[in-house]
């Protein structure tokens, strides 16, 4: 490796690690899914297409379950799920233990859901965000690493307690 290549690799750090990303949509998100699959691959990540295969009507919970399960079971590092608004995919994905879905319509939210919440599933609205903005949201979300700060670790631990049915209130 040449000196400039080594410096670029050093600057890249964790944010540039290659990820296994599964991408899925219902019929309303099909067009955006196709665009994002190609884009994520251009970024150098490994992509798995979870369907749908076309814009024929299908049920978003089926796709959401596949993507959330893949992440929760460590078959993928992250999932990107698209329906008309992104809300249905988010609700369904969050029902899978170990999947932490965040619905994002802007890059700030995408960055913060990774940095502070360690979200492993991104949901988007195929009828809400355009292709250009969706690509920037996805890029930001994939490139942002979880900060691991103690305050965020504490909060995530509380979310996991809720998920496990063992939640209790703490005003700390």
Protein traits:
alpha/beta, Ribose 5-phosphate Isomerase B, Chain: A, 7 helices, 14% strand
Topology-level CATH name = Ribose 5-phosphate Isomerase B, Chain: A
Major sheet characteristics: 5 strands, parallel
Strand content: 5-15%
> How big is the Rg?
16 Å
Strand order of the largest sheet: 2-1-3-5-4
SS-based class: alpha/beta
Question: Architecture, CATH level 2?
Answer: 3-Layer(aba) Sandwich
Principal-axes geometry comes out as globular
- When the domains are counted, the total is 1
Q: Gap between N and C termini, in Å?
A: 49 Å
Uncertain regions: pLDDT < 50 for 5+ in a row? 1-14
How many extended strands? 5
**Which CATH class is shown?**
Alpha Beta
Q: Specify the helix fraction band.
A: 40-55%
Encode the helix/strand succession as letters: HEHEHEHEHEHH
CATH superfamily: Sugar-phosphate isomerase, RpiB/LacA/LacB
Compute the number of helices: 7
Mean pLDDT level: 91
Architecture overview:
- By secondary structure, the protein is an alpha/beta fold.
- It has a single domain (19-147), classed as Sugar-phosphate isomerase, RpiB/LacA/LacB (Ribose 5-phosphate Isomerase B, Chain: A, 3-Layer(aba) Sandwich), CATH 3.40.1400.10.
- The chain contains seven helices and five strands.
- A five-stranded parallel beta sheet has the order 2-1-3-5-4, with helices on both faces.
- Strand 4, helix 5 and strand 5 (121-125) form a beta-alpha-beta unit.
- The radius of gyration is 16 Å and the shape is globular.
- The relative contact order is 0.15.
